[in-house]
Design brief:
Distance between the termini: 15 Å
Helix content: 40-55%
Strand order of the largest sheet: 3-4-2-5-1-6-7
Low-confidence stretches: none
Number of strands: 7
Strand content: 5-15%
CATH class: Alpha Beta
Radius of gyration: 17 Å
Structural class: alpha/beta
Mean pLDDT: 93
CATH topology: Rossmann fold
Order of helices and strands: EHEHHHEEHHEHEHEHHHH
């Protein structure tokens, strides 16, 4: 069965997009067929994969509004397939608020294409609005990137409450895979304390390994490629490969 993983955290800047693209590339290196879905109106994943969102004829916005199908909107890049986003998706969120069954729009749209892939990863926006609810409803599992700092740590509780609501109303089988510590600096006491506290405070696992903070990750989006392609032997690339290995076992 195809794995569908929603990657979510309502706090911005915690490397959700980097995690989706890098894990997708790590699995693609293993000859898996991967679809990544950009569900963020900021279209950061689309940009990071070298796709010009302003030049697209079709995007996830059109799919969510029923103007086209997911199959027709998918863009093929070097190693991944992408369902791209544009700023117009912000308008789709407003439209969805008045739509019956609004939580299921993405799930229904992806249904015809899911079986063509080994893994589908959904990059949710930095909010707990209707787009993120769509991502969590469409997902079979959820992964939580987390920058090991106090504010990011506090937001995990809110996200888990939202996940509980999704389980109650729209997706009872949604499984939390765990958290991923991103931009991790093992030299700081705070980073270590946050990672150690998560399982006790929230009852979720922190998956190994943490992703180290490195400039190589920041350089990759401007080149339209993942850090695994930009710096194949960097510490971050090796960490994402190891994390892919961990995910295959959970």
């Amino acid at each position: 069965m195809t794995r569908v993983i929603a990657v979510a955290n309502q706090k911005g800047g915690v490397a959700k997009t980097t995690t989706v693209q890098s894990l997708g590339s790590a699995f693609a290196e293993r000859d898996r067929k991967i679809l990544v879905v950009d569900l963020d109106p900021q279209a950061c994943l689309t940009y990071s994969m070298g796709v010009d969102s302003e030049g697209l004829d079709r995007s996830i916005h059109d799919v969510m509004l029923g103007r086209t199908t997911a199959a027709k909107a998918i863009v093929e890049t070097d190693d991944l397939h992408l369902l791209p986003s544009t700023i117009d998706l912000a308008g789709a969120e407003i439209h969805l608020l008045t739509k019956t069954g609004r939580e299921y729009v993405l799930s229904k749209a992806l249904r015809p294409v899911i079986s063509s892939y080994d893994l589908v990863m959904i990059d949710c926006p930095p909010s707990l609005g209707i787009l993120t609810i769509n991502g969590l409803t469409a997902g079979r599992e959820v992964l939580i990137p987390l920058q090991p700092e106090t504010l990011s740590h506090r937001g995990v509780g809110q996200l888990l409450e939202t996940i509980d609501d999704v389980r109650t109303y729209t997706n009872s089988s949604l499984r939390v895979l765990g958290a991923v510590a991103t931009m991790f600096d093992s030299r700081t006491r705070l980073a270590r304390e946050v990672v150690e506290d998560l399982p006790h405070r929230y009852g979720i696992s922190v998956l190994d390994p943490p992703i180290p903070k490195t400039v190589r990750v920041a350089e990759a989006p401007a080149r339209g490629i993942s850090v695994l392609q930009h710096a194949q032997r960097s510490k971050a690339s090796e960490a994402y490969r190891a994390l892919a290995n961990t995910l295959e076992k959970v």
